[in-house]
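URGENT: need a sanity check before tomorrow's submission.

F., can you look over the sn-1-specific diacylglycerol lipase ABHD11 record below? I want to be sure the sequence and structure line up before it goes out.
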Amino acid sequence: MFCNRIKHLSIGQRLYPIKNHVAAYGSNIQTIDMSYDVFESKNADNNLSPLIIMHGLFGSKQNWRGVGRALASKMNRKVITVDARNHGNSPHADDHGSKSMAADIVQLMHRLNFRKVCVLGHSMGGRTMMYFALKYPDMVDKGIIADISPISIPGDISAMSKILLAMKNINIPQDLPMAAGRQLANAELIKAVPSKETVDFVLLNLRKADDGKYYWIHNVDALYNNMSAFTKYSDTIKGLPPFKGPIMFICGKNSPYVDPNHWPQIQNIFPNSEIHWLDAGHLVHFDQAAKFIELTVGFLQK
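Structure tokens as predicted:
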């Protein structure tokens, strides 16, 4: 039995100056109220730290619905999946970086009256959760990082800029039905990045309004304008002390996003960490869902 509470917030919602715990660090970051879903079993123990899950670039909390439900069924803790700013049903904002997205997590914790949480993040969400743990260590119990490194990212990150530029420039006539509109968008996107898997994933976010206009639920302009920050993560975490709590990395053997040679450097940042390699690509939680869930449950229940 699950209670799946869903709270959606409008795109035009105003931004909130960051407050309470985050304000103690002298930050002037503006936060948004993220849209989120809650999964919990009837035996959920409110004394256990809830698990907050953040998706990767072009994703949404919908991508984690199955994993979130499965995790809640196997543990006695609440599982919260979120839409990051500029994604899904969450509000849009000009700033899109790990600092602002981590601040949004703090804002969510204030809204839900959570003092301490476990965190799980994939790719972009993983970097957000790593920064969150490093910046606000007293708010983090344990962390799971899915197929992303704090050290470097693959050169093909430039492909993301290309696909965002293509998304900005696609013009779909209003009189085209949705199926035809998707075909047109697919043809344009595949020119930018010849990866069917990536294009199919991006197309999940194409919508058609009541007036016939096509739009992306992402804030494409903000994502495009902030893309260069993804290559400067070392500057983002520079000067922050190591996070000494338990961290688990789950990585895909067939993904270029985590270099095994960087493990000693990663452990300098997260000294109490472990790493698991699964026979998977970048979407490790899809490619090896059962093993991913097994590792996560085992790690959180230690």
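My own read: The radius of gyration is 19 Å. DSSP finds twelve helices and twelve strands in the chain. If you see anything odd, call me.
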